[in-house]
Amino acid sequence: MALHHITCVVVIVFLGSVWSMPTPHACQLQRNLIETTHRLLETMGGHFPLQCVEENVKISFPATVIESNKQQGTGAAKAVYEVLKSIDALFDNDSIPDQWDATKLDDFQNIVYRQIEESKCIMSKTEESNDDFPARKAAVRIFFDKLSAVLKEKVYSFCAWEIVRKELQYALRSILDDKSNLLWSKN
């Protein structure tokens, strides 16, 4: 009987220590979720419509906000988090085109929200004295302000949303193409 109690205590202590161990991907953005988000955004509406070519404007994503070295990784991760929050805010709108695949749009919004919820801890990370996150955040805000302006200027038209969708695809592709260890992969 005493051996049984000791065994139970050892198992509980062991499991407690295993469960409390940090995981290698704790508090990191997940590459597979960003890839899925990009794919859903790309396929929910198909190719950029010919009817929108004349209205098209280019709003360059400030790719420098995600560039990092070992000292700037936290600022870059926070910038990606801000991008996700800004995407979520942009799509929190009732005027999204009916022409888009509703299921893919819903999945897209849910995955963006999931990424935000699962990576909130990124915002509590701190960098050393060379923290440039405020500048990165400002650049992200300017980019999304321009996207919002296009939507408002074009009265949330189908083509305005297509321009936004196209530019967000570039933004997500830039994040995915970044060669730093910004995103966690299951590999």
UniProtKB/TrEMBL annotation:
GO biological process annotation, one example: defense response to virus
Domain of life: Eukaryota
Main location: secreted
Signal peptide: 1-20
Locations listed in the record: Secreted
A family per Pfam: Interferon
GO cellular component terms, A-Z: extracellular space
One Gene Ontology term of the molecular function aspect: cytokine receptor binding
This protein's UniProt keywords: Antiviral defense, Cytokine, Disulfide bond, Secreted, Signal
Family to which this protein belongs: Belongs to the alpha/beta interferon family.
Protein name: Interferon alpha-11-like
Source organism: Chanos chanos (Milkfish)
Gene behind this protein: LOC115829818
